[in-house]
Amino acid sequence: MGGYWFSKNPDRAWAEKFYLIFVPIFFIYNAVMQKMGWVSAGNFWHITQDLLMWLPYCVILPLILRRKSGVAWNQDWWFKYQIWIGVFVFFATYFHTEWFFSVLGMRYNFPNVSLYFDSRLCGPDEATALATHQKIPLGIYLNTMAFFTIYHNVACIVMRRVRSMTNNWNPGARWGSWVAIVVAASFFFAFMETYLYIQPDVANTVYYLDKARMLRIGSFCYMLYFIVSFPNVYRLDEPPGEKWKLSRCVIEASFVSMITLLLIDLFAWIYGPIV
Predict the structure, then answer these.
(1) How far is Cα 19 from Cα 238, in angstroms, rounded to an integer?
(2) What pLDDT, on the 0 to 100 scale, is given for residue 224?
(3) pLDDT at position 1, please?
(4) Beta carbons within 10 angstroms of residue 229's beta carbon
(5) Parallel, antiparallel or unpaired: strands 206-208 and 106-108
(6) Taking a C-beta distance cutoff of 8 angstroms, is the pair 55, 126 a contact?
C-alpha cells in the first residue's frame, strides 16, 4: 500500500513543493488585507494588492529559483502550470462569474473601483449589473490566479497519493477510488472557499445573498469546476515522459473552461437559482 505525494517528474515535484509553501503566505496575506480593510481600495491599490498576492511568489520567485533542469524557463512545469491556470481563470472569470451572480447569488461591491472587465452579453445589462453589484473588477482576475494556483496544486498532490496507493487494486476499484478522491477534493475546495473567504470583514464587499444556501447547495455547483479541472491539470507533464507544449496548455485549459461552463449551465437548468 505504498503511495507517494509528489510527482515522479522532478521538475513538477519541485514546483509542487514550492507552491505548498505559498499556502500559509496566501492565508496570512488575505487575512491582513481583510483585517486592514484594504479590500475596499480604489483602482490602483485594488489591482496592486491582488497582483502582489500572486505575481511575486507564483511567478517571479520560481523564475529566479528555478531548477537547473536543462530546459528553457518557458518549458518548466511551473510556467506551463501558470499558463494553464491563466487561461482557465480568464474564461472562468470573464464568463462564468455571470452564473455565480445569477444562479448562486454572489455579489462584488467595490464602491471605489471603476475598472471592470466582464461579459457584455452574459448577465444583466450594464447599468443594472453595476447597480446590483454584478460587475467584475480587474483585480479579481489576479486574485483568482492565486486561489486557483493553490487549489489545483494541493488537490493534485492529494489525488496522486490516493491514486498511487491503489496501483495494485483491480481496475474497477482503482477507477472508483479515483472518482471518489476527485469528487471529495472538488467539494472540499468549493465549500471551503466560501466558508473561509466570505467573512464579516468583507461582508459588504464580496458576499452571497444567502451564504448558508451557497454552502449547502451552491457548493455542488461550484464543485463542477474542479471535477473537470483537477483531473485535467493532474495530467500536465505526467507521467514524466509526457511533455506538454505551451499550445497544449492553452487548448486543454480552454477545453476545461468550456466543459465547466456547460456543467454550471446544466445546474441552472436542473436546479435553477439557489436564491
Answers:
(1) 17
(2) 97
(3) 55
(4) 25
(5) antiparallel
(6) no
CA 187 from centre of chain:
13
Q: Is the pTM of this model over 0.90?
A: yes
6 neighbors 143 (Cβ within 8 angstroms): no
The structural domains of the chain, with segments of one domain joined by +, span 10-270
Q: What is the largest CA-CA distance in the chain?
A: 58
Q: If residue 107 lies in a helix (H) or strand (E), which one and from where to where?
A: strand 106-108
- Is residue 175 a contact partner of residue 190, using CB atoms and an 8 Å limit? no
- Report residue 120 as a C-alpha cell: 457584455
Q: What is the pLDDT of residue 241?
A: 80
- Side chain identity at 186, as an amino acid letter? S
Measured from the Cβ of residue 41, the count of other Cβ atoms closer than 10 Å reads 19
Amino acid 91: pLDDT: 97
Band of pLDDT at residue 199, cut at 50, 70 and 90: confident
> Could you give the 3-state DSSP secondary structure of residue 137?
strand
pLDDT in tens, 47-93: 999 999 999 999 999 999 988 778 899 999 999 999 999 999 999 99
Q: b/e per residue, 124-144, with b = 16+ CB within 10 A? A: eeeeebeeebbbbbbbbbbbb
The grid coordinates listed for 141 are: 482576475
User: What is the enclosing helix (H) or strand (E) of 262?
Assistant: helix 246-270
Kindly state the helix (H) or strand (E) to which residue 188 belongs, with its residue range.
helix 171-197
* Residue-averaged pLDDT of the chain: 94
Cα–Cα distance between 134 and 172 in angstroms, integer? 45
Place of cell 500536465: 236
User: Cα dist. 227→6, 80, 91, 114, 119 in Å?
Assistant: 20, 21, 17, 34, 24
- For residue 82, the Cα-to-chain-centroid distance in whole angstroms is 11
